[in-house]
Write a structure and sequence with these properties.
Blueprint: H1 3-9, H2 21-30, H3 32-37, H4 39-45, H5 50-59, H6 77-90, H7 92-103, H8 105-108, H9 113-120, E1 135-136, E2 138-140, E3 143-153, E4 161-169, E5 175-183, E6 188-190, E7 204-214, E8 218-220, H10 243-271, H11 286-318, H12 329-356, H13 367-378, H14 386-397
Parallel strand pairs: 1-4
Antiparallel strand pairs: 2-3, 3-7, 4-5, 5-8, 6-7
């Protein structure tokens, strides 16, 4: 179906047709104090709070990169990154849910247009986590019979759908990984998310039992395979490879998290004094000026790098900026590694902040301690393992096949 045909079949408008990216970003910045005040409550609840979810809905955050033809704002990816960074300054867990759920219209764009029409429904309200680790599924007629469980479904408590992954049998006996769009009402949630950090993401297990999924509600698992060939949407940002895009999603949260830590560190520097003579305010101390300046510089560099990577990603969706040809697998891996580097710059800044802010910030109820725990769990995500990705990027550069999908 062409874009023109989509527009005649779908007549959705965003809730605020005149909303601008600048206004959207201003809304995110205005929410920082409220999100900060809810951090402990969100961690205790182990999920995105209902009131925060409603405020995200009211602000239009879930529709930032949703196609305009399906009731979204279709703002640029740099706008999406900037908004997610500001939300993460307020609450890393809430931002993680928002970033992954609101970013996944990019993945839904790989699906058949009829699946997209069903997903967005009559009002364009689409909130969908995606989970990997595909399980074997059975071919049944023009679709698949699916039973399985998937961990780490961030945001499943506030979702309208879930994208699960299956290993689908081919006629030659091989298996192909595919994403499968499941209505939230067809899943059950198992609360197995009990972590030292990022507890408020509610990244729980989803379970599907004996569910038939038609072929049109499946799509190639583009993070593991070639770029999308689905031309439903004219905007090229919907047609790129998805591996490096996933790091853009996560990187925005990582860098925003550490920007929030720097906010708290500045408050400490302004309100506390040196413990030994001369008992000057910390911000007047050359030592703490060095700490603050080093941390700030790393965060600024991380933010600038991720925004540049995002721009390069969008360029690659149209024409590869490195080789001048297609959006190659090598380009995807190189952007992937660069985004990992941006995250590491931010985490290096956090080490400076946490190490020098004073022992009292290690208290269990300290906001800086919570951020440090959150960052520790962020680092464990399988896509943050740079040694794996860097090797694969190098192998592709030298004409060899990658060893793993990432």
């Amino acid at each position: 179906m062409s874009m023109a045909e989509v527009r005649t079949k779908v007549t959705l408008l965003p809730p605020e047709p005149g909303l601008t990216p600048e206004a959207m970003l201003a809304r995110a910045k205005a929410m920082i104090p409220t999100l900060r005040s809810r951090q402990a409550q969100t961690e205790e609840a182990g999920r995105l709070l209902d009131e925060t979810n409603q405020e995200f809905l009211d602000a239009g955050f879930y529709r930032i990169v949703q196609p305009r033809s399906f009731g979204g704002y279709e703002f640029s990816l740099p706008t999406y990154v900037q908004v997610m960074m500001e939300i993460a300054r307020g609450c890393p867990s809430s931002a993680w849910v928002l970033a992954l759920v609101s970013g996944h219209p990019i993945m839904l764009a790989d699906f058949d247009v009829n699946a997209q029409i069903e997903a967005y429904g009559a009002d364009g309200d689409y909130r969908c986590p995606s989970v990997g680790s595909p399980v074997p599924v059975k071919r049944e007629g023009a679709g698949y019979r699916v039973s399985g469980s998937w961990d780490y479904a961030s945001g499943c408590d506030v979702s309208t759908h879930v994208m699960v992954s299956g290993l689908c049998p081919n006629e030659d006996g091989s298996m192909t990984a595919r994403l499968m769009l499941v209505d939230r009402e067809d899943c059950t949630i198992v609360n197995n998310w009990r972590m030292i950090g990022m507890q408020g993401t509610g990244s729980r297990q989803v379970v599907v039992k004996d569910l038939y999924i038609p072929e049109y509600r499946t799509a190639p698992m583009a993070m593991w395979q070639a770029k999308s060939t689905n031309a439903v949407h004219a905007n090229p940002m919907y047609s790129g490879r998805k591996g490096s895009y996933f790091l853009i999603e996560l990187g925005a949260v990582v860098i925003g998290t550490v920007k929030g830590a720097l906010d708290l560190y500045e408050e400490i520097c302004r309100t506390k004094a040196m413990r030994f003579p001369p008992r000057i305010p910390l911000f007047e101390s050359h030592e703490f000026q060095q700490y603050f300046g080093d941390a700030q510089g790393k965060i600024d560099a991380a933010e600038a790098l991720l925004l540049k990577i995002t721009e390069r990603y969008v360029e690659a969706c149209s024409a590869d900026p490195i080789t001048g040809g297609e959006f190659s697998e090598e380009t995807d891996r190189r952007l992937f590694v660069a985004a990992q580097e941006a995250c590491r710059l931010a985490w290096d800044a956090l080490e400076i902040i946490f190490t020098t802010a004073g022992t009292s910030i290690g208290a269990k109820d300290s906001m800086l301690a919570r951020i440090y725990r959150d960052a520790s769990v962020q680092k464990t995500h399988f896509v943050q393992q740079k040694s794996r990705t860097a090797v694969n990027a190098a192998r592709l550069h030298f004409g060899m096949s990658p060893l793993t999908p990432f």
